[in-house]
Amino acid sequence: MNEQQHPSVEPETIEVYPLVALKNMVVFPRTRMSLAIAREKSVRAVEEALLRADRMLVTVAQRSSEIEDPQPADLYGCGALVEIVTVHRQADGSLQVLLNGLRRVRLLEFQDLEPFMRVSVEVSPEPQVQGPQADALVRHATNLFEHYAQLNRRFSVEDINSIVAIKSPARLADMLAAHVVSDVVQQQDLLETFDPLARLEKVCVFIGNEIEILELESVIRNRVRSQVDRSQKEFYLREQLRAIQEELGMETPSEADELRERLRQKNLPPEAAAKVRKEIDRLEHMPPQSAEIAVVRSYIDWMLALPWNERTVDSFDLERTRRILDEDHYGLESIKERIIEFLAVRQLRLQRASEQGQPQRGSQGQILCFIGPPGVGKTSLGQSIARALGRKFVRIALGGVHDEAEIRGHRRTYVGALPGRIIQSMKSAGVRNPVFLLDEIDKLSSEYRGDPAAALLEVLDPEQNAQFVDHYLEVPYDLSEVFFICTGNVKYQIPRPLADRMDIIDVPGYMLEEKVNIGLRHLLPKVLAEHGLTPEQLKIPRSVMERIVTDYTREAGVRNLERQLAAICRKAARRIIARPSTHLRLTTSSLEQYLGMPRYSTPPLSMRMQVGAAMGLAVTENGGILLPVEVVTMAGKGDLLITGQLGDVMRESAIAALSYIRSRATELNIDPNFQDVTDLHIHLPENAIPKDGPSAGITIATALISALTRRPVRGDVAMTGEITLRGRVLGVGGLKEKILAAHQAGLRHIVVPVENKKDLMEIPARIRQQMRFTLVETMDQVIAAALAESSTGETEADNDSHTLIEPQPRPLHVDERLPASRGRSRSRHAAIENRRSEEQVHQGEESQEQPSLILPVQEDQAADVPQAQLGARASDEGPEGEA
To answer: Can you give the pTM of this predicted structure?
Structure first.
């Protein structure tokens, strides 16, 4: 049985009252509130209420406090009926009103909106609840409020006693809602809750949440106060201890005194010493709780940790340097000679400067820079130089550095500022004359935060680096005794101002024999040690190492070779763990059990003659590569399609080759009007790899001529060279890397521009003896060397082993045109004969200006081709152009 009793209440009534809209506040029944009323409508509503006998009006909260002239839709649907107790008019016309809340009302209809709002409301008297449940809820709310008042401490004792004395649930809920709840939305929700018990439960929930927040704030406040008290206590005790020590005559060195002693022993330059001394004085007078004390102390530690006068003594000896280079690197004879010559000149400059009393920064010379594919030993060359000189070695990777502060450091005004990577590495080295390797200098990038390449100019320039200023140190630091060495993959990507300060040494890729010896002498012992194996447990003969190099790697360096050896060691370690007494010796037949099927074939290319397919050569940052070019003809309207992810330079080479062919169509036995009915598609396979550069010009031209004339390209020929519109063949770069790539692929006949004749001596003698080089100046020489003599599908005597691959021919030859055009053909041939007779008169002058292109090469002209070749019979010591 429910003991809650609901006494009868008066029936609901409907009345019309003036309305005052409130901002950010809610008036509750049975509470008093003072309001400042300034809006014209609200002032007139108050004046209208004062004219009434009961002096009553309705207050309603606005949904948004930013609205100055609220409309009915901007007001809540529930308000309070209030009585005006007192009114005071201010000097500015506003009213100060004291209101007494009476009852809750529901807004029914707005009677007037001007000059003030008048509304009809429904007055609903609240029921008076009694019983145990109401008493329990009142007691619980009273306890919560007392706890809340102890934590908040903004209520006076009189306020607390007056609220605790309330026993009515309805009155207590309204009183707590008016004094404890501050959020307008929550107050409006409580105002719209007509049931007293439900309203008091919501108030209890709100007070409970507030108590939890206040308790957490109290815990945090007490924790902070205890820390502050501890710091103050330590400060007072420290001051008392210092005073006691002074009274007893005991001298205990302070932190500042210790730093001054370190500064005295360090013997810094005058400017740096003065800066550090000033910072020590600042540190001494700072309070212990200062936030800046850590920044100052960190700066002093950096300055005292740098090597200002510490250095190692050079121990340069030619024989020792040569021995160290030979121990660390196999092959690279020319590179080793360049390094020894560079070090010898540098040592003489240092000795001369020391004898004449000149500063060493004027005797450093240029910066050494190694350029080559990955994995050829550029970094290890720098380590060998450091070991030969007896200096410490420091390496910095510059790949991806895009912020100038990485080089020059951050200013101390920034949070977490540090010196640049140059100063950090000098601190790690501990001496002022280490060997400093700047790795991947061609991978620098710049953005809005500065250009690191420009910052490196001050580091690498011998005329400037004696006064290098890091933004963090703010004083000059001498880098003139540092031996800087740079490495990179592509020298064209190095900024020009930096390249001008460097002595660039090209480090090419390794040959097969060099890779085999490197694998046996250096990589295999290293990999065996890393995997816990001994040379007796795993043996790899030379023949197996050659198979690993040829069938499982295809690179300029030896990194992939090291990975393959590591894979063999892992499988061997597994077998040795299973059977500890096992001793393994690899053979060519058992190699596939360790590395799987071969990844590359030997040779990887087909030696068949093909129509419209020529083999070019190119150089990338990974070394030389083969660059096949394919051309097909199709019936069309003369469109030229170029695919294979080609760059702008290579596309222009293709267009230049096509223009050359069109200008010499008659001499090449091609229909001059072939583009009227023929589309050409030039494609370079491996679309995922970007390709660019002018060296594929003669390759594209040869493939185009082969496709248009149906003359197959010799399968054992590779070529490189730039083509001009007049048919000249210009020199190219990276010839050594290209020839090494062709040799590794099994190609033995290379067509090379005459301008590159001087570069042939850089090729190792053993490789040069196995190759046949054809030096060319014009495209007619390229055609004679690269294209087969006949287009009937029969191979020549010297190419009996080749197989001709020829697509379906199209009517592109002069003698294959339609009968309707034969009359025009005869007239063109007559004009050509007349022009030839005229050209014979000026043959000497014409040959100097422009090479004359001929019709397909005759048998008597084939003998002229080898005169420009460097064959295997040529002597290594003799002239390069002799056969």
So the answer is: 0.55
